[in-house]
Amino acid sequence: MTQAQVVASAIPEQTIWKEHVSWIDRVPRWVSMLALLIAFLIVWQIVYFVELVSPIILPSPLETIEDLFVVGKNLLTGDYMLAALWITTQEVALGFLIAVVLGFGLGVLVGETAFGERAVMPYLVAINTMPKVAFAPLFVSWLGFGIASKVALAAFIAFFPVIVGTAAGLHAADQNARMLFKTMGASRWQTLVQLKLPIGMPHFFSGLKNAAVLVVVGAVVGEFLGGGKGFGELIRVAAAQLNTPRVFSLIIYLSLLGLATFWIVAWAQRRFVFWHKESVTEETLAQ
Question: Is 9 within the bounds of a domain?
């Protein structure tokens, strides 16, 4: 028996620290999510049954689920709802692309230059604090009632998180690593491409995840206020007709579009930033 084994055997088992895991943390994830969904539906049904809220405003879960199947059938058969979903998807995709390109460019300007940080960033923050929904009529006046105004509003709402993520990523490089690159005679461009951008990728993708959620909001708000033929217009018409089950079902399908956009970004992060270990929250949302 070695000396290390003798020392280990002499230590009482009670002194070895073990992390206590509660029973709720040992429950499988799918069981927890299913139980939470069932509890939510039960509470919803109780509120509907005792009429705490008018049935005109709040439909029952069964009515909403039934309408979900109706909308799903309409989508699968290629009816008018599929065309509306395709229009909204185009607005989301184009708005997200513009937000990424614009946000990345401005983020590099802010994070890499003193001019961008001192002169440009205050204006960007001021623009971000404005009620962006109020700009919808302006985009409609400038770009018309077509898809262009919705794309512009979606990009306008979603671009700021990309700026912040990119700028924060460029500042994430260690000072010693920067000094090493400077000592080796690396140019500013080489330091940016070979050091700052790779290290800053996790921050950049965090901004993309926020933008992926906000871009759907921008597209739908644009359809609410500027007309159109997308899902936002269908929700507006259903709400005007007090068809609340249809409103709920359309909102759920729109949330699936937002989740799909988020998961695509999360997949790209795992694919291109494979060395970065995500936090528990990020990993859970990406699954």
Answer: no
Residue 25 lies in a domain: no
29 belongs to a structural domain: no
How many Cβ atoms are within 10 Å of 146's Cβ, its own excluded? 13
Q: Quote the DSSP letter at residue 277.
A: P
CB neighbours of residue 178 within 10 Å: 14
Decide: helix, strand or coil at residue 206: helix
6-30 residue pLDDT tens: 545 555 555 555 666 676 777 787 7
> In terms of residue numbers, what domain contains 127?
61-286
Residues 6+ apart with CB under 8 A from 210: 158, 161, 165
CA distances (Å), origin 157, targets 88, 100, 183: 16, 12, 41
Name the residue type at position 202: P
> Could you tell me the pTM of the whole model?
0.82
Look at the chain and count its residues. Answer: 287
Q: Could you tell me the two tokens for 3?
A: 């000396």
Half-sphere exposure of 210 (CA within 13 A, CB side): 16
